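Lecture 7 notes: from sequence to structure.

We start with a single chain of 184 residues. Read the sequence below before looking at the structure.
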Amino acid sequence: MNMSLLLSFFLMSSLIASTVTDLRFAKIPNWITFPTMATGILYHTLVSGLDGLFYSLSGLGLGVCLLLFPYIMGKMGAGDVKLMGATGSLIGLKGILVAFIMTSLAAGLYAGIVLAVNRRYLGGFLRRYGVMAKTFVCTRQVVYCPPSESEKSPGIRYGVAAAVGTTLYMVLWYFGYDFAKFGV
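Now the structure, written as tokens:
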């Protein structure tokens, strides 16, 4: 499926709005995600019929499934999951898979920057994970060491990483980078 320029601008607008609300309120509201999902499904269905419907729904489904486990574990908000699904409804199955990989890389970089800026938390983080690594080496058991009450975790806004990763995917796609060469 070929994504029109208008649809690309719509997706970018949704990503910008989600980034702003995520940074400002730590939430990605339904008034961003649901219309984005509906637009993706409607557009692809009108342009390509049942193939377009399948294209959009498969992207939406994979986008949701990729983040469902972190959501269930309490590590991510529902808005992040819905945003990835909404993005998938616009860029399809292959697109959301590549965008997710790029989003994960952006999230890792973002988390590293947040840890570097919050040096007090970084020290406790390294100590805790050092203890966990030593415990694993000595006992071959994975034991989680939770942060102390005084260690408040700096927030990671996944909507920001999703916007960066998806934008990177769209820029590469626009300039003709063929992800199919790598089996993705």
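The chain is about 75% helix and 0% strand. Keep this in mind for problem set 3.
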